Amino acid sequence: MEQEAKTILPQVTSEEKVPVIEINGLVKTFGENNHVLKGINLSLNKGEDLVILGRSGSGKSITIKCIVGLVVPDEGEIKVFGQNVLNLVTHQLNEVRIRIGFLFQNSALYDSMTVKQNLAFTLKRHASDLTSQEIETHINAVLESVGLAEAINKMPSELSGGMRKRIALARTLILKPEIILYDEPTTGLDTITSREISELILDLKKKNNTSSIIITHDMACAKLTADRIIILKDGVIHAEGSYQELEESEDQWVRSFFI
């Protein structure tokens, strides 16, 4: 089957804002009355960390799941690297997905596999042309980048919550994604480990120039990682700005996130 050529983003200066994700009029309803998204419009720029805040059930996770096709919206347009992913056939959507890393809230590691096997599984599935030595090299490098080279032969059950999150992040990074979607990256972690994960997110952006959307309830994580924040309320974007701008907002509901 003939495949379309992949979109190549132009080289730009750091001052220019190039959207790698553009969402327009995103609507999603579950059942008859659960209107989760009511026309979301947002963009993610190249090299930006965008944090999405909102109360539970406000549609934060649904929004990023729509981006990678895990949830199909009722209406709207989602452009990733300039392509409307809602119009792509399966093999075209898979090409886009390879360029997007998704860190699930529960880490989603395969419990019956070692750390090495978890990472190798991802490589073999999406980069089948790699040799065994190349796979080994990739695994060692990505574990080194998250500070867990020594965990290569451990089972997920032998890892702490923070270590599991780092391994899940390593699995996300191993295909060298240009965009990373983080779904509650620090949930369930203690304060020190949460900060370590937040600092790792920042470090990875600096090293790899990734663009990220970070869904979180952790305001310390938001403050440390966000270039820009949007807050969802009742299925729409209620506020947008920097951490400081929103913290000083005259809107009492917005300020309540920062208390």
The CATH homologous superfamily of the largest domain is called P-loop containing nucleotide triphosphate hydrolases
CATH level 3 topology of the largest domain? Rossmann fold
Q: What is the ordering of alpha helices and beta strands?
A: EEEHEEHEHHHEHEHEEHH
Strand content: 15-25%
Q: What's the architecture of the largest domain, going by CATH? A: 3-Layer(aba) Sandwich
- Mean of pLDDT: 89
> Which structural class do the helices and strands define?
alpha/beta
Question: Helical content, roughly?
Answer: 25-40%
Q: What is the C-level CATH assignment of the largest domain?
A: Alpha Beta
Summary of the model, kept short:
This protein has 259 residues and is an alpha/beta fold.
What does this structure look like?
The longest helix is centred in the C-terminal third of the chain and has 18 residues, at 191-208. This protein has 2 domains: 18-99 and 180-259, Rossmann fold, CATH 3.40.50; 107-176, no CATH class. Helix 4 (132-145) packs across helix 5 (161-173) and helix 6 (191-208) runs parallel beside helix 7. It is α/β, with parallel strands linked by helices. The strands form 2 sheets. A 6-stranded mixed β-sheet has the order 6-7-8-3-9-10, sandwiched between helices. Strands 2-1-4-5 form a 4-stranded antiparallel β-sheet, with helices on one face. It starts with 18 loop residues before the first strand and ends with a helix. It has helices at 60-67, 90-98, 115-126, 132-145, 161-173, 191-208, 219-225, 243-247, 252-255, and strands spanning 19-30, 34-45, 49-54, 75-80, 83-84, 100-103, 179-183, 211-215, 228-233, 236-241. It has 9 helices and 10 strands. Residues 21-259 form the ABC transporter domain. InterPro entries: AAA+_ATPase, ABC_transporter-like_ATP-bd, ABC_transporter-like_CS, P-loop_NTPase. One of its GO terms (molecular function) is ATP hydrolysis activity.
